[in-house]
Amino acid sequence: MKVLLTGSTGQVGYELARSLQGVGDVVAVDRNVMDLSNLDQVREVIRSVKPQLIVNPAAYTAVDKAESEPELAYRINAEAPGVMAEEAKKLGAALVHYSTDYVFDGSQPSARGEDDAVAPLNVYGASKLAGEQAIAAAGIPHLIFRTSWVYGMRGKNFLLTMLRLAKERDELRVVADQHGAPTWSRTIADTTAQVLSQAHAGGTAWWDQNSGIYHLSAQGQTTWHEFTQAIIEEAGLSCNVLPITTADYPTPAKRPQYSVMSSERLMARFCHLPDWKTALQLCMR
Ligand SMILES: NC(=O)c1ccc[n+]([C@@H]2O[C@H](COP(=O)([O-])OP(=O)(O)OC[C@H]3O[C@@H](n4cnc5c(N)ncnc54)[C@H](OP(=O)(O)O)[C@@H]3O)[C@@H](O)[C@H]2O)c1
């Protein structure tokens, strides 16, 4: 099977380039080959590669910057996945895509399921939701994995920022009233590969039964403050972490207060997901 993988320089894309090796022949492209803001180029690359499967972790992920660049965020996060879905339909290919907990407003202190009402609070979340809808509307075999608070040992992420700051400072002030589940990029990639192995074995009937949205987050929940404490402890650093509120740390984009998602559907159908702290320890070791 020929697999076209986008965003191979990103946190999840980098891990997918490794974990998809067992799934098929992977053609990994970065923005130099396929710039998602150039929809003609997206079409041309797909038509020339002719994949049986497109896996799209590439996205406009700068949540605060998206507030001042909504057109670009929508082109990359909504229009480009829509074009991928159209092209996949012409080729008879399947599409795997990634979305976010930020499609929810986070007003309810309970874990959100796939069928719960969406109401994004910021441009990034709204653009990702529009991408989900464009893919679903195409009526192709697809999987949309909504994930949250992604970190890993490469790329730009909260874990690496906190490790750097904890080495530079004696004290950090971190938001303690936003709740979520930090998810290791490798967990996302390895879970994707496991699900795709099952899809490969199940053929067309599998896609008919299983196409749709799945929440793919580490189990359990925490806050940015507690996550930082766990990172510092695991790294053996000594830095005081003070809890602050969201109001103490204003950002251009509004963020959900409670963005925990239930991944029960994915776990019931496909495979287990680790607890956030266990995955953090594995990642850092
Ligand atoms: N990061 C999170 O906390 C988080 C949370 C929830 C959901 N997600 C979703 O999970 C998926 C993977 O995210 P991630 O954390 O791996 O993101 P990431 O590390 O920020 O990587 C994003 C990737 O997209 C590429 N990209 C951005 N603009 C592009 C363009 N115009 N054309 C082609 N490629 C472009 C980047 O390329 P460059 O390296 O060239 O910039 C990079 O490879 C995304 O769908 C994201 O929305 C992420």
Structure description:
- Helix content is 43%, strand content 16%.
- It is α/β, with parallel strands linked by helices and 285 residues long.
- It has one domain: 3-Layer(aba) Sandwich (Rossmann fold), CATH 3.40.50.720.
- The strands form four sheets. The chain has a six-stranded parallel β-sheet with strand order 2-1-3-4-5-10, with helices on both faces. Strands 6-9 form a two-stranded parallel sheet.
- The mean pLDDT is 96.
- NADP nicotinamide-adenine-dinucleotide phosphate is lined by residues 7, 9-13, 30-31, 35-37, 57-61, 76, 98, 100, 128, 147-150, 155.
Helix and strand topology:
Layout: E1 2-5, H1 11-19, E2 25-28, H2 39-49, E3 53-56, H3 70-91, E4 94-100, H4 123-138, E5 142-147, E6 150-151, H5 158-168, E7 171-175, E8 179-180, E9 183-184, H6 185-210, E10 212-215, E11 222-223, H7 224-235, E12 240-244, H8 264-269, H9 276-284
Parallel strand pairs: 1-2, 1-3, 3-4, 4-5, 5-10, 6-9, 7-12
Antiparallel strand pairs: 8-11
Helix pairs in contact: 1-6, 2-3, 3-4, 5-7, 7-9
Function: Catalyzes the reduction of dTDP-6-deoxy-L-lyxo-4-hexulose to yield dTDP-L-rhamnose.
EC number: 1.1.1.133
Catalytic activity: dTDP-beta-L-rhamnose + NADP(+) = dTDP-4-dehydro-beta-L-rhamnose + NADPH + H(+)
